[in-house]
Amino acid sequence: MKLNHTKRLFLFLSISIFTLIFSEKTMAQQKTQIVRLAKIQVDPAQLDKYNAALKLQMETAVRLEHGVLTYYAVADKTNPAHITILEIYADTAAYKLHIETPHFKKYKEAVQHIVTALELVDVTLIGAATKPAM
């Protein structure tokens, strides 16, 4: 199908406007997001129990809560009891709702005697890049 000059111009402008609107919306959303690192130290003897509780809480939150956007949990290779979690919430309201959910409260109760140290660090997302799932 060949497009004449007017139709090509219209298509180009439509795509450009859509891209601009989407980019501005994305930038505005990033400004209101809560991005946090949770640095956690766990009792090494109870690491498996902690990891199971964490995975259940993360999966439940992402599945049930619209405002929970991202969870990544990683363990230090040399000391797996040192865990860092990247959490991204749509906004402050989403975070406040999250910490009041039954699944989060269940997680906190399950790990209260397993976590030996917790540091929450609010950070600013500079950028993100991911490959689409194949």
Class by SSE composition: alpha+beta
Radius of gyration: 20 Å
Shape, principal axes of CA atoms: globular
Per DSSP E runs of 2 or more residues, the count of β-strands stands at 4
CATH class of the domain at 32-122: Alpha Beta
CATH architecture of the domain at 32-122: 2-Layer Sandwich
Q: Spatial order of the strands in the main sheet?
A: 2-3-1-4
CATH-assigned fold name of the domain at 32-122: Alpha-Beta Plaits
Low-confidence runs of at least 5 consecutive residues: 23-28
User: Major beta sheet, specifics?
Assistant: 4 strands, antiparallel
Report how far the terminal alpha carbons are from each other. 30 Å
Alpha plus pi helix count: 4
The whole-number mean of residue pLDDT values reads 86
Helix content range? 40-55%
Order of helices and strands: HEHEEHHE
Strand content: 15-25%
